[in-house]
Amino acid sequence: MARSFVQEARRRVGPKRARIREIIDRLAAAHPDATIALKSRSPLELLVAVMLSAQTTDVNVNRVTERLFVKYRKPEDYLAVPPEELERDIFATGFYRQKAKSLRRTMAMLLTEFDGEVPHRLEDLVRLPGVARKTANVVAAELGDAQGVVVDTHVRRLSQRLGLTRQEDPVKIERDLMKLVPREDWGRFPHLLIWHGRRVCIARRPLCEQCVLTDVCPSSRV
């Protein structure tokens, strides 16, 4: 879009701080089912599922973990089998050798440094092998202690379209969103953007005519 059009659009919808509450409330009403798609029943299962979700779909991960979590119930179980066996068990998630290596190293660290429990603090989570900031943010938020804002492709695209950030780098986008989004909404805000991005604000052809944010979105085509 031309710079003049963007500037005019931003003037039309108003400052981002004045819009953020309305954006959150409308998305929450439009997507009351917006939650994490990965299935888990414990902090350990959550951690494993999120680690396996890299470069694959949530549906695929859920298909794999349905059997995986019957066989592997505690950190020791991941270390009790040969690496090749774990690789076969997670093969369908892709990048299975690296994921199996990260899982085994993470389980060893959980046992030696965290009494076999998944830590809740972001600074502890990012120390786990194979756990980057995005993964750590997801785990912390789902454990009820969001310490940042998860930025995936949907969150990046929608936060830019909504004029909430001009950044391209996920870390800088997260920093902008943390300043803007009320802390009590850090956990659910990414889910709202992700589900809205999948259902309405689609990458190639956003369905602006079906969007509940048309009057508060500078990118609206309506």
Explained architecture:
It is a single chain. With 222 residues, the chain is mainly α. It has helices spanning 3-13, 16-30, 43-52, 58-71, 75-80, 83-89, 96-113, 122-125, 133-142, 153-161, 170-180, 189-199. Helix 3 (43-52) packs antiparallel against helix 9. The longest helix has 18 residues, at 96-113. The two termini are 15 Å apart.
Number of helices: 12
Strand tally: 0
| Termini separation | 15 Å
Could you give the order of the helices and strands? Answer: HHHHHHHHHHHH
Averaged pLDDT, please?
A: 95
Protein traits:
12 helices; mainly alpha; single chain; 222 residues
Which SSEs are present, and which pair or pack?
Blueprint: H1 3-13, H2 16-30, H3 43-52, H4 58-71, H5 75-80, H6 83-89, H7 96-113, H8 122-125, H9 133-142, H10 153-161, H11 170-180, H12 189-199
Helix pairs in contact: 2-12, 3-9, 6-7, 10-12
Summarize this structure briefly.
The chain has twelve helices and no strands. The protein has 222 residues and is mainly α.
